[in-house]
Structures are given as C-alpha cells and as structure tokens.
What we know:
Helix content: 55-70%
Radius of gyration: 24 Å
Order of helices and strands: HHHHHHHHHEEHEH
Oligomer: single chain
Strand order of the largest sheet: 2-1-3
Strand content: under 5%
Amino acid sequence: MTASPADALWYRTNREFFVRFVNMLLNDATYVLDEALSKFPKIHDMEKQLEENRELTPESRQQIESELQQAEGQAQSYMQLANETVAMMKLFTDALSEAFTMPEIVSRLAGMLDYNLVTLAGPTSRNLKVVNAEKYYFNPRVLLPQIIDLYLNLGSRQSFIEAVANDGRSYKPDVFDNSSRILASKGLVDADKVAAWNSLKAKFAKAKELADQAEQDYGEVPAEFEDPIMGDLMKDPVILPSKHVVDRSTIIQHLLSDPKDPFTRQPMTVDDVIPDVGLKERIERWKGERIAAAKAAASGTADAMDTTE
C-alpha cells in the first residue's frame, strides 16, 4: 500500500498533527515492547528455578510461583498490546514512510527498532524462551519478520538509513547479520525479502562507514557548532526565546513532550524559534573546509606512497 497524491498533500498540510501522532505511536510501541519483552527473561529464570531447584522450601517455592503468575499476567497483557501496535506501525510505515522519517522522529524510531532487533536476534535472545510462549501471545517467528518489515518500509529514506547507522547504542552489524541467518534458516520470510533485507543492511553499513569517515575528517568540533543538549554537530541551528541555540530537531522533539524552553522553563512553541542563518552558514563552511583538508591530506599520502616511475 502506497500513499496517493491526495494522502501526501494531506500529510504536508497537517504535518504538526502527524508529528504528534507518530510521536505518540512511537511512545506506545517503545513502552509496550520493552515491558513485554523484558518479562520473558524473568519468566524464563523463574521457570528454571522451579524446575531445577529441588531444594526450595515450600515458602520460597510459593513466593516464586506467585511472582511468576504476576509476571505471566503482565507479559500476556503487554504482548497483546505490542502485537497490535507493531501491526499498526507496519501499516502506517508502508503507507506514509515520510511521516516516520521526519528529523524530529527518525532517530528515536531507528533506535527503538535497533534495540528490539538486538533483543530478538542478539546474544541474549535465548533468554526469551519460555514454556508455552503462545499463551502470552508471543511468537518471535512472527515478531522478528514484522520488525524487519518496518525497516524495509522505511529503507528507501536516506534519513532513516543514516539514523540507523548513527545509533551508537544498538546498531550492531553482527546482530543484523544474525537476523538474516534466522530469517533464512527458519524460513520465516521468502528469499526475495531476505535479499531485500541484506541489501538494506549493506546500505546501513555504508552509511556507518561514511559517518565514521566524516567524524574523522571533521576532527574536533568547535563548541559553538555542537547542540548543547545532544552534543551533536548541528545541522539546522535555531535560537530559542531564552537566546540559547540548539538544533531544530532537538527542540521539536523536546516540545513534543514538554512545551517549555528547556533552559528557562517558560512556555514556548516551535513557532517561537528563529533560524540562526549565520551560524548554519559557518557550520557548512567549516564542514566543507575540513572535508577538503582531509581529501588533500589523503591525496598527499597516496602520492607519497606511489613509488612507480
């Protein structure tokens, strides 16, 4: 399903609504997935204790059984919500990928997906195995392909590719590779989808390589060019009512959950920010100079190593 021209026009004229809607959906997905999946290692451990530890006193066994029952009820409730939320995200990202790759949203979305991919396909995924997983509505053979579908739905957007690659917390190429092995070896998706996923993984890896190279080329970033909240090199600096300067994506993301100037706590909206055109021009000029210097240095090194006559 793709967005029609009318849908795209409606989105562009209602961007603020979409930002808030996607943010709420992302908040819900992050919360219910984390709550659901975090229960299974606990259930796994308690089931193991009850099965293997024959020396438990009746009181200890009763306490573990009580805690297990509570965790089971929570896992069941959260997993139902998680399945519904992921299915909804799959539909929306397929229809309106643009809405999910806005600057104020895309990094959080990439981080959420990366984190859950690590949970489902990383080294600790074995701790998700529980007795009668179906009673919790938990089926990793379905959930993992759904998470992959979210990546694929957004994979045509360069901003999403870069956001995944720049996720320093959870972007782990070995986990991405392991997800490919799981998908293929267990026949969870068809060969075409595995190929599409492998192609997208290569784009993530290339974006990571370019980002690392750019960071190396830039060297130490001047303090005035860094976002004071995120610590990143700013792309679109704006001046807040408090006269502090932050990146536009940072303040928009902040205002989604807290409509106040983060430095003075005074009420504000995104309409109150002023583009810092001069600073943006200085940043772009500095980036160009640093990249040119790096290329010149690399060229000089290559010339120095060339010993052919």
